[in-house]
């Protein structure tokens, strides 16, 4: 009748279904929640037992596992990544100088990686930003920070001869290592732990380690996870009690910057 007559009295709203999943995620044992088969079965059982008119419930749980970052053989207490999901790329542009007969070639070589997804559960903040009548976001002295990193760098050398002997694999590995280490461990990113500061610290470390790199560009989209408010169901899940988080889709911020060794002229 809900389809043919517009009678919604037996419809369990999708919002109620969402609340059920978060409620069970908070109240069930971790050993159940962390195993997709057990969690799916628990949700389905709850629904058919709670609603007498529901004769069957299909629940599909997909898992996107996070791995703890490791540094010097030790797992990090609050920083995670999805290892091996990023894509490495490079672009080379070789041009003839004018006039073409001069046979002088100029090379621009750019490399990078994208889709390196990272998350940390503390040591990130966003406070003391511009306040006016349109600002509704509260100060966040501590929060979950997650992003999907795009990092690219351009090499100093502008000729094929000068690029000979450059250890590209070492620079790629170092750029990734510095990105993860700055995100998780660099105290400069803890004191002023906005995405903007974290971006600068990442790029600064790469430029300091690799003289062959001329500039570093990062694009860091905000991937938001906010604690789900379970207070309507008599449960605490905010601030220090937060255990169950809700992913938030667009709109969200995109933080970008290019950090260079030397100022570049404006076009």
From TrEMBL:
Pathway: Purine metabolism; urate degradation; (S)-allantoin from urate: step 1/3. GO terms for molecular function: urate oxidase activity. Its EC number is 1.7.3.3. O2 binds at residues 14, 222. It catalyses: urate + O2 + H2O = 5-hydroxyisourate + H2O2. Keywords: Oxidoreductase, Purine metabolism. SUPFAM superfamilies: Tetrahydrobiopterin biosynthesis enzymes-like (SSF55620). Gene3D superfamilies: Urate Oxidase. GO terms for biological process: purine nucleobase catabolic process; urate catabolic process. It holds the Pfam family Uricase. InterPro entries: Uricase (IPR002042). Catalyzes the oxidation of uric acid to 5-hydroxyisourate, which is further processed to form (S)-allantoin. NCBIfam families: urate_oxi. This is Uricase.
